[in-house]
Write a structure and sequence with these properties.
It is a single chain. α1 crosses α2, α4 crosses α5 and α9 packs parallel to α10. The relative contact order is 0.13. The longest helix is centred in the middle third of the chain and has 18 residues. The protein is globular and about 70 Å long. The strands form two sheets. The chain has a ten-stranded mixed beta sheet, covered by helices on one side. The chain has a two-stranded antiparallel ribbon with strand order 5-6. β10, α9 and β11 form a beta-alpha-beta unit. The chain is α/β, with parallel strands linked by helices. It folds into two domains: 50 residues, DNA polymerase, domain 1; 268 residues, TIM Barrel (Alpha-Beta Barrel). Helix content is 30%, strand content 18%. Bound molecules: iron/sulfur cluster (SF4). The site of iron/sulfur cluster (SF4) has 13 residues, from loops.
Length: 363
């Protein structure tokens, strides 16, 4: 529920509107999951609330901790589906990577999540509860460590679940709730042009990241089939028109695949494509997983690519894979269960169905 939903809910029960805000603050500002802890509600109100409402949508089914401190959570929804969320410590900061869908319909060829197909969208409650559960877990296992940044880069294409994306952003960034600063939240997309244009008109303003991965249509068509619908020209036109706030820049993610998009010519094309765009590029050497046959480029090829981009004036950063030993790194999230030795089991195909008309085919 948004704050307004909670107020409407309170009124529907015959309570005063402010009760809705009181309850909402307990959940979103204080992380309370038990009605009995809402000490400014009297006993009868608490009893009625417990009868009429439930708090929290997810439970932690499993967690794996990488040798680098990255923590992958497998979370269960009420209907028994699994999603994954990753906590990435970086000095005193912790970034949480959250999921927006169960599976994904976009079918990027290098991504393990794509192999699940789309099972369903997460609702706004399931999106924000990933943050609240992780916050609680950190309080227990690493007191003093707080989640500083949120990235919508886990399972799913956030812009395919637009309404729940926006609602979850409004909840997480509400000053009366979790109070996340909008500049500390990033939404990553594979480039759904019409939804990008819509996002630019919202009052809530997260950072924008675009999974680009190639600077020419031929290669991008091959590794990201969505490019056949919204090609690089359309995507760049939408991004150039995007109302970027002052001092912000677009992040382009570029997964480096050996022999596919890692040549010096690719680097030069990328620099040319992004010339004049306020941006930075994160290079992500491909994180291997059994569902795709790509290879990570050699260290020399990675360095050469980065140096060429920099030489041509493109701010380019190399992202060190985090949590790749537990399949928690970029592109590896696939709901694998943990095996007895702590590694990840092979991918188990999940029920795949097409959720609603208009989405790309997944099966
Ligand atoms: S990279 Fe992102 S958009 Fe592409 S298939 Fe994977 S989860 Fe979906």
């Amino acid at each position: 529920m948004s704050l307004e939903d909670a107020e409407t809910f309170a009124v529907s029960l015959g309570w005063q509107k402010f009760r809705g805000e009181q309850i909402w603050r307990w959940v979103h500002a204080h992380g309370v999951r038990d009605v009995e802890q809402m000490t400014n509600l009297n006993k009868d109100t608490r009893a009625e609330l417990a009868e009429k409402a439930t708090i929290g949508s997810l439970t932690i089914a499993e967690q794996q901790v990488s040798t680098d401190g990255t923590r992958k959570l497998r979370l269960l929804t009420r209907d028994g589906q699994s999603i994954e969320s990753v906590l990435i410590p970086d000095g005193e900061k912790t970034t949480q990577c959250i999921s927006s869908q169960i599976g994904c319909a976009v079918n990027c060829q290098f991504c393990a999540t794509a192999k699940l197909g789309l099972i369903r969208n997460l609702d706004a409650g399931e999106i924000v509860d990933q943050v609240y559960l992780a916050r609680k877990l950190l309080e227990e296992v690493e007191p003093g460590r707080r989640i500083s940044n949120i990235v919508y880069m886990g399972m799913g294409e956030p812009l395919h679940n637009y309404d729940n994306l926006i609602k979850s952003l409004q909840i997480l960034c509400n000053d009366k709730g979790a109070k996340l600063a909008q500049r500390r939240v990033t939404v990553s997309t594979s480039g759904l042009v019409p939804k990008l244009e819509k996002l630019g008109l919202e009052t809530v303003r997260p950072n924008l990241a675009v999974s680009l991965n190639a600077a020419n249509d031929e290669t991008r068509d091959e590794i990201m089939p969505i490019n056949r619908k919204w090609n690089i020209g359309k995507l760049m036109a939408a991004l150039k028109a995007y109302p970027l706030e002052q001092r912000r820049r677009i992040t382009f993610e570029y997964v480096l695949l050996a022999g596919v998009n890692d040549s010096l010519r690719d680097a030069a094309q990328l620099a040319k494509l992004l010339r004049g765009v306020r941006c930075k590029v994160n290079l992500i050497p491909w994180n291997p997983h059994p569902e795709a046959l790509y290879q990570r480029p050699s260290d020399a090829a990675i360095t050469g690519f980065q140096n060429e981009c920099k030489r041509l004036g493109l701010p380019t950063y190399l992202r060190t894979p985090r949590g790749d030993d537990i399949d928690a790194a970029c592109g590896q999230l696939a709901n694998r269960a943990k095996t007895a030795d702590g590694s990840s089991a092979p991918l188990v195909p999940l029920r795949i169905r097409r959720e609603r008309p208009g989405l790309p085919a997944v099966d």
